[in-house]
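Action item from last meeting closed. Structure (167 res):
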């Protein structure tokens, strides 16, 4: 009767092959995980401007007395030493700060999205049978039928969203 089993050399060869296969599988899965994290980050960053625009438009649609103002010309809500247009709606203001888009309540301001360099507001107003588009002012915002919000990002790209509003 002959003994069955593996010699020490056969065992070492089998363990070496198994270790190589394991190393290849782990390296590949690590690379896939890294690529997945990068893709998820790009998707998340791409969605953030859309989320901010949706939140601003939701505030505008909830508040029939919303307005657009320039901080240098006196907004009814303090928005700090910001530059450009500010939107006051639903009890707080949306404005640009040197670090990005902020939402300011009467108590405090918080950074909502970094990397936003400008905020523009366009309104469509009805003059007789004609709709006219203009950059928002306090008077134009009161007569707006449709509003478009544009966020200019630090990389030079622009995101935009619009909605009909009730007055």
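Sequence:
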């Amino acid at each position: 009767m002959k003994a069955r089993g593996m010699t020490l050399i056969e065992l070492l060869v089998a363990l070496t092959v198994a270790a190589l296969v394991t190393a290849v599988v782990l390296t590949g899965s690590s690379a896939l995980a890294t690529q997945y994290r990068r893709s998820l980050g790009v998707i998340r960053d791409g969605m953030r401007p859309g989320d901010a625009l949706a939140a601003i438009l939701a505030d505008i649609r909830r508040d029939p007395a919303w307005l657009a103002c320039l901080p240098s010309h006196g907004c009814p809500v303090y928005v700090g030493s910001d530059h450009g247009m500010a939107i006051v709606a639903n009890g707080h203001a949306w404005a640009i700060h040197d670090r990005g888009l902020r939402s300011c309540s009467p108590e405090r301001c918080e950074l909502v999205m970094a990397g936003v360099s400008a905020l523009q507001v366009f309104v469509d107003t009805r003059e007789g049978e004609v709709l006219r588009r203009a950059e928002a002012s306090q008077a134009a915002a009161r007569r707006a039928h449709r509003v478009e919000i544009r966020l200019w990002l630090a990389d030079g790209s622009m995101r935009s969203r619009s909605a009909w509003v009730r007055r």
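Note appended to the action item: The mean pLDDT is 80.
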